[in-house]
Known about the structure:
The chain is mostly helical and 185 residues long. The chain has seven helices and no strands. The termini are far apart. Helix content is 43%, strand content 0%. The chain folds into two domains: 1-43, no CATH class; 68-179, Cytochrome Bc1 Complex, Chain D, domain 2, CATH 1.10.760. It has helices spanning 2-20, 24-30, 68-71, 82-100, 127-130, 134-143, 163-179. The radius of gyration is 30 Å and the shape is elongated. Bound molecules: heme C (HEC). Residues 95-96, 98-100, 118, 120-122, 124, 129, 137, 140-141, 149-153, 155, 159, 167 line the site of heme C (HEC).
Amino acid sequence: xxxxxxxxxxxxxxxxxxxxxxxxxxxxxRVGWFSTMRHQRxxxxxxxxxxxxxxxxxxxxxxxxxxxxxxxxxxxxxxxTSESINxxxxxxxxxxxxxxxxxxxxxxxxxxxxxxxxxxxxxxxNDTIARRTDGYIYAVLVSGxxxxxxxxxxxxxxxxxxDRWDVVNYVRxxxxxxxxxxxxR
Length: 185
Ligand code: HEC
C-alpha cells in the first residue's frame, strides 16, 4: 500500500517540474538566491556575435596589404646567414614546395607543370624573378592573391615576422643554385 503512494508522489513531483518548464536549470534560476552559470551576459553558442562599435581599431595593429610599389622599398631585415637560410628552408618546404617545387622551378606536386590540377604556378628561379627586389618576393608571400597575384595564396597569416625574410633568403639561395651550370634549366 505504501509503495504505490511513494511512486505517485514522485510522479507528481516530476509533473510539477515538467509544468515549470522541464529544464532544472530554469527551475533553479527562478529561485532568487540561486544562480547558474548558464544565465549570464555572454554570447550563447550559435548566437550572433555582437559586432564591434564602428571605428574600432585592433590594439595589436593591422597589417596593410602591400602593393608592388611599396614592396620594392622594403629592406630585408635578415642577413643571409646559414641560420636564416636553414629556417627559410624549413618554411619553404612546409608552405611553398607543394606548388613551387623543391628547387623552385614551379613544378611542385600539385602544379600544372607536373601535370597536376593547379595552374599558373610560376618558377621562382628564372632570370626575371631573380632580378626582382627582396621586398617584391616578401610582398607576394605576404599578400599573394589579395595584391592581385592570380592564385598565389596569402601566407602573411601563416609565416610571420622575420620568418618571411628567411623564406626570401632561401628563395635567393635556390636562385643562386639555378644559375650555377649544374642547376640551370
Ligand atoms: C597553392 C599553390 C601555391 C603555393 C603553396 C605557393 N604559391 Fe607562390 N605562386 C602561386 C601561383 C599560382 C603564382 C602565380 C601568381 C600570378 O599569376 O601572378 C605564384 C607566384 C609567386 C611569386 C611571384 C612569381 C613571379 O614571377 O612574379 C612568388 C615570389 C611566390 N609565388 C612565392 C611563394 C612563396 C614564398 C610561397 C610559400 C610561402 C608560395 N609562393 C606558395 C602558387 C602558389
